[in-house]
Specification:
The chain has 168 residues and is an alpha/beta fold. The protein has one domain (5-43, 51-161): Tetrahydropterin Synthase, Chain A. The protein is built from 4 helices and 6 strands; from the N terminus they run βαβαβαβαββ. It has helices at residues 23-26, 57-72, 83-91, 106-124; strands at residues 5-15, 29-41, 75-79, 97-100, 128-138, 141-146. The chain has a 6-stranded mixed beta sheet. It is elongated and about 55 Å long.
Amino acid sequence: MSVALRFRRRFSMAHRLASGSSLKCATPHGHDEYVVVELEPQDHGRLDGEANMVVEFARAKGRWHRFVDERLDHGFQLGERDPLLALAREHFPDWRLVVTPGDPTTELMAACLAAKCQAILDDEGVVLRVRRLTLEETPTNAVVVEGDFRALLPRADGWWSRPDESTE
């Protein structure tokens, strides 16, 4: 038996898939997405009989929700080699940019977000690990990552591996 904590957060985003996708996806467009994170204790054991919590919800989700609200919500996701990235940096310095190695697909973003959430938890000293992360792109399409989600990433270093507010 085990226990898991589950958090759901909504954010709006725009992105563009420039590498071989359909013309529809190569045109900048947006989605209202939901990110669902399931956390489990690193050590499964009995509840203590007093507080009976793995970790307080506020401590487990506080920084994560701030990251989603302040960095992902209304952000523009672009691949690091997308020509629109230079244009955005030069002409729109206040935009919230989320830069990925290659196209910012839902699959890649789910793995990046799982890694970012784990980096935040580790930095907080919270004894939880990401069990599963679901990124719902539309009401009918979602990507689920679980297990060794870091193995899915094209490279280990990047904003997803740092416990800060960075997205570039």
